[in-house]
Amino acid sequence: MPKISLSGPAELLTVIPFHLGFQPTRSVVVVCFHGRRLGLLARLDVVDADVAAEAAAQTVPTLLQGDPSSVALVGFEEEPDEALPLLEALADAVEWDRVLVRERLVVRDGRWRSIGCDCCPDEGWRLPEQADVPAVADYVALGHAVLPARQDLARLVAPLAPTDPLHRGIHAGIEEWQRRYAAAGGSVSDLPEGPGPRRASRTRTGTSDRGLAVLEGGDHSARQQLVNESLVAWAAVLHGEIDESELADWVPSLVGPLRDLHVRDAIVGWLCPGCVPLDGFPDQLQVLLDELLGPELRLPPAAGDERSGPDTGPDTGPEEGPWSDGHGSGEPLDVRPGLDLDDARLAAGQLDGWDEAAVPRLVLARLEQVCRLTPPAHAAPLLSVVASLAWWVGDGARSGVAVDRALELEPEHRLSRLVRQSLDYGIRPSRCA
User: Fold this and answer.
1) Geometric angle at alpha carbon 104, from 99 and 106, rounded to 5°
2) In whole angstroms, how far apart are CA 325 and each of 107, 127, 232, 322?
3) Which residues pair with 76 in a beta bridge?
4) CA–CA separation, 110 vs 120, rounded Å?
């Protein structure tokens, strides 16, 4: 994974929006450090003083699960001092757990200052231009971009509006695909199986006459053909082989089978190795996934603690580290882009080289295109896959907006609820791999 270095608070403040995927406003961002390595980042909405302590108490235990050596607290304000109550409450809660608060920073009107710092002018320091921060070019090379606000991030996964001219045709196409799948013995309900005979077996088998073991029951050849058709579509989309103008024609094959838990879980298990163990699936299905999706789409999980970062020499102690002798001096901070939690990400995994490091964001962007072409009635399963993948690669902001939209559509959707709980409790993908 490429290493990105930052020198000083001003550069850190400049790249925080690239981590989140949008420009934070009226927010407090907590930045966790592991020596010189950047760890967890998490964003919270600004709150009133009377509830600041409660908000901090609910948030800090999750933030400190990764055992950071220190944190920086950054308030993004529209009005003077509106972030201070939450900043101070978070600082008190973090210090109570004996974690060093390295910086308390405030950003407003294109300027920043350090709270309690005698060297900062009253009006603060001007934020550097993005072009003057070398790390920005690295983030752009990895596919990171900054949207104006969090709601713009949510629009990336907004389902196709019923008033859209494409809606009727795509909706009918998905319904027809699922009708054919059900007629061939496939499941079009993503509810867990109850007691009694199972419609689809996950027993591993090497006999070719049964085809895919998930196809047990019904017309094997018809069902297998539909599964194969779907996996071909998934491979084409994820590899970027389908022109945007033609994508609508592929949506039924992409979305239609996601109500079948076996097909959905197989796709999630391939994209997120270890999230869903594949040893419960038949050998033939694994071979098909390997041939069509390929090993390059088996994405590593976002790392979850200080061991994930690069080896840059001895870690600094609690009284030393980035900018320990003032703003902008001392050892540079080593960054692995990626975070966790809602509106946050973990320092990302172990891809080699810039091209490979950009793969997770390319895959997410391609699936988000499919979300925008999926009617609301069929969107929750796809949104849950997108949310799972975003959580897995450490993009908590994208995972959060996708899973929230899925739960708006189907409040009891099981996979979506699991992803939401993982975000809420700060469960790290590296602990599931």
Assistant:
1) 150
2) 21, 20, 56, 8
3) 27, 107
4) 15
Cα separation of 88 and 94, whole Å?
10
398: closest CA among 261, 284, 278, 302?
A: 302
pLDDT (tens digit, 0 to 9) for every residue of the chain, 433 residues total? 456 777 788 999 998 998 888 999 999 999 988 888 887 788 999 999 999 999 999 889 888 887 899 999 999 999 999 999 999 999 999 999 999 999 999 999 999 999 987 787 878 899 998 888 887 887 777 677 888 888 898 999 999 999 999 999 999 999 999 999 999 988 888 765 444 433 333 333 333 333 344 444 455 588 889 999 999 999 999 999 999 899 999 999 999 999 999 999 999 999 999 888 888 888 888 888 999 999 989 988 875 443 333 222 233 333 334 443 345 434 444 444 333 334 333 333 333 444 556 788 889 999 999 999 999 999 999 999 999 999 998 888 899 999 999 999 999 999 999 999 988 887 877 666 5
Residues 6+ apart with CB under 8 A from 45: 26, 27
pTM of the model: 0.76
Q: What gap in Å lies between CA 243 and CA 248, rounded to an integer?
A: 10
Q: Which two tokens stand for residue 365?
A: 């962007």
Could you tell me whether strands 4-6 and 333-335 are parallel, antiparallel, or unpaired per DSSP bridges?
antiparallel
Alpha helices in 293-341 (DSSP H): none
Distances (CA, A) of 221 to 177, 179, 209, 291: 15, 16, 10, 19
C-alpha span between 316 and 68 (Å, rounded) = 12
Structure tokens at 419: 């992803």
* C-alpha span between 125 and 279 (Å, rounded): 56
Cα separation, 142 vs 151, in Å, equals: 22
Which residue in this structure is represented by tokens 């790392």? 303
Contact 24, 76 (CB under 8 A): yes
Where do the DSSP E strands lie in 203-303?
A: none
**Which tokens belong to 308?**
């994930």
Strands 125-126 and 27-34: unpaired
118 in Cβ contact with 131 (< 8 Å): no
Which domains are delineated in the chain? 4-148 (3.40.140), 168-294 (no CATH)
174-177: list long-range contacts, CB under 8 Å, 24+ apart: 174/251, 174/252, 174/255, 174/256, 174/374, 174/375, 174/378, 176/252, 177/226, 177/252, 177/253, 177/256, 177/257
Instruction: Please give the backbone phi and psi of residue 345, each rounded to the nearest 5 degrees, phi first.
Output: -150, 160
